[in-house]
């Protein structure tokens, strides 16, 4: 029991530290640009390098982890995060800093694919607790980002942006020490012969379940990051907020996402089908997201809509993370499923933010660009509806098998 608890706490801590490497950039970006004379484009690459790596390598990392084990993936991910942050602290030109963010991106994708895989493996025989803990895991992004954005101004004021990078590297090194201490007590990786890896790759990569959940996650991430990224400037320019007020509005909306993450366990306990929750979140995001960026409505109502949309939508990532073990026939496949979902998620966040900006620019304003939100939400609803049929067939097959084998029906 102590080993399981230690594994869960290590995975949660690693996830929050990985998310903190995204959260450290916005408060420091002005200081970094002044020090290294970065252009706006270079600053953009520095901010999005992690998302770009995850959007590119998520599936490949999942396949690699299916062979070598999530334990190694977590440790190497932390090492690359610490190395990238340390290298970035010593950067003297923009290109070097962006290169260090590539190391951080590699570390990030290793951590966010391996950590939930470790949790799922540790709680394989307790599906109810596994769902609850994976819901908790899904909070890693808002918790890690919010925590870093809270402490970053204090560290920047005292140590500068380089000191902030070094503090992050030191915190990750401390986590590495903990991981090394737990290493021998973690579950050993499954047999990783080349033939086994080929089997896992063939069976997992071409099954539709994880890809459909990934499509839902992609649409969610695109819309959610549109709101979180553009709300501060939009609230100032079109809703009458001061810069400080807009920052607080966005912070509240992002923090509300934690409550949405934790609500997923409640909905699962009420026997709400996974596809129904995924579709419901997409519909809610599509309607409220469109409303937030619409002119002619009361700013207070649009502010409330932004908070509800960003907050309640958190049920989607938690539901998807809990669904990956359901679609895995063996533990090694969980890492591949996590890789698919993480790649799709980061593709949405990486493409969605500039896409709505480009659309708003070409169509003469946000009233034109806002229509991208319900379009993406509709795609997410279609993916959720397709998932419905697949999971019904899986449950029917399990019911047919159970009387003959004495096995329990697979749990959502």
UniProtKB/TrEMBL annotation:
Keywords (A to Z) from UniProt: Cell membrane, Membrane, Transmembrane, Transmembrane helix, Transport
Extent of the signal sequence: none
Domain Major facilitator superfamily (MFS) profile per the UniProt entry, residue ranges: 7-392
InterPro entries: MFS, MFS_dom, MFS_trans_sf
Pfam families in the record: MFS_1
Record's bilayer topology term: Multi-pass membrane protein
Highest taxon listed in the record's lineage: Bacteria
Protein's recorded name: MFS transporter
Record-annotated membrane-spanning stretches: 44-66, 73-99, 105-124, 133-152, 164-184, 205-227, 247-268, 275-297, 303-326, 347-365, 371-387
Species annotation: Aromatoleum diolicum
Lineage, opening ranks: Bacteria, Pseudomonadati, Pseudomonadota, Betaproteobacteria, Rhodocyclales
Location(s), subcellular: Cell membrane
């Amino acid at each position: 029991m102590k080993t399981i608890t230690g594994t869960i706490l290590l995975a949660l801590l690693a996830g929050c530290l990985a998310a903190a490497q995204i959260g450290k950039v916005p408060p420091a970006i002005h200081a970094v640009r002044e020090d290294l004379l970065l252009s706006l484009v270079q600053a953009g690459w520095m901010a999005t390098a992690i998302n770009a790596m995850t959007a590119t390598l998520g599936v490949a990392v999942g396949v690699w982890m299916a062979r070598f084990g999530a334990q190694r993936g977590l440790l190497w991910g932390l090492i690359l995060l610490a190395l990238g942050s340390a290298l970035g602290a010593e950067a003297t030109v923009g290109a070097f800093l962006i290169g260090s963010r590539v190391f951080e991106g590699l570390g990030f994708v290793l951590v966010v694919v391996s950590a939930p895989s470790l949790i799922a493996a540790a709680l394989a025989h307790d599906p109810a607790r596994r769902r609850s803990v994976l819901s908790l895991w899904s909070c890693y992004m808002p918790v890690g980002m919010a925590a870093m954005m809270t402490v970053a101004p204090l560290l920047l004021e005292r140590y500068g942006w380089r000191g902030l990078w070094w503090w992050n590297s030191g915190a990750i090194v401390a986590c590495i020490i903990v991981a090394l201490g737990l290493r021998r007590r973690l579950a050993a990786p499954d047999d990783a012969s080349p033939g086994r890896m080929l089997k896992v790759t063939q069976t997992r990569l071409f099954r539709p379940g994880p890809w459909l959940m990934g499509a839902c996650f992609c649409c969610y991430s695109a819309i959610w990051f549109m709101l979180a990224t553009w709300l501060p400037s939009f609230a100032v320019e079109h809703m009458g907020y001061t810069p400080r007020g807009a920052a607080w509005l966005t912070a509240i909306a992002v923090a509300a996402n934690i409550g949405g993450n934790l609500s997923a366990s409640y909905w699962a306990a009420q026997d709400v089908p996974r596809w129904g929750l995924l579709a419901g979140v997409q519909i809610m995001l599509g309607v409220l997201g469109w409303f937030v960026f619409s002119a002619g409505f009361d700013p207070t109502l649009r502010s409330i809509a932004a908070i509800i949309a960003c907050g309640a939508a958190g049920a989607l990532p938690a539901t998807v993370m809990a669904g990956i073990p359901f679609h895995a026939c063996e533990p090694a496949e969980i890492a591949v499923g996590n890789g698919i979902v993480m790649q799709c998620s980061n593709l949405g966040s990486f493409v969605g933010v500039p896409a709505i900006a480009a659309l708003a620019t070409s169509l003469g304003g946000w009233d034109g660009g806002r229509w991208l939100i319900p379009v993406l939400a509709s795609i997410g609803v279609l993916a959720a509806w397709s998932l419905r049929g697949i999971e019904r067939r899986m449950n029917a097959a399990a019911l047919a098998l159970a009387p003959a084998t004495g096995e329990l029906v697979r749990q959502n």
